[in-house]
Amino acid sequence: MMGQTTIPWGMDDNDRKAASEIFVVDDDENVRDLLEAALAPVGFPVSSFEDGDSFLKAASTRVPICVFLDVVMPRRSGLEVLKELQARHFWTPVFLISAREDSSMIVEGMKSGAHNYIRKPIDENAPVSLVHDAIEVWSRRDQERRALDFQPDESGEWFRLSASERETIALMRLMKF
Fold first, then answer.
1. What domain range is 170 assigned to?
2. How far apart are CA 46 and CA 48, in angstroms?
3. CA-wise closest residue to 71 among 45, 36, 108, 46
4. The pTM is what?
5. pLDDT by residue (tens digit) across 29-72?
6. 9: in domain
7. Closest CA to 147 of 172, 121, 117, 112
8. Does any domain span residue 27?
9. Does 117 share its domain with 160?
10. Can you tell me whether residue 106 is helix, strand or coil?
11. E strand spans, 7-159
């Protein structure tokens, strides 16, 4: 991402790295247990939440590798939680999960920042694959961030470049010219 982006909850650019945990948000204890068991082989701890509010509270202080977020929950739906995350510029990949096969709901979720959608019942291999996708997202973001880090040389030449020139060089670095 080339523009300046604000980081939620008092975090700065240095805090944008993911913690070594995965969040599961679902009001159904059986689904939480299933996802925890399916994700155990990945080797990251799983923190489970039975509602969106407790998840949002935890997400204000910790940045997980990814979030598995149920769409249909009491009090606050997964889509409402996702929109709150989007408003706060939450960087973590979020995977919506639902038993519903509602195209408009899936589209709304994707427009609100969901990384992907998983239909219940969940294939036991899907969560691990999605965690690997999330790790790849974090890796690409880290590469992009490093490409945008400009260090002036001894003559201070970087300071003489315009913002558009620095952006062009950053794009060239990302494309490995």
1. 146-175
2. 6
3. 108
4. 0.73
5. 999 999 999 998 888 899 999 999 999 999 998 899 999 999 99
6. no
7. 172
8. yes
9. no
10. helix
11. 22-25, 46-49, 66-70, 94-98, 116-119
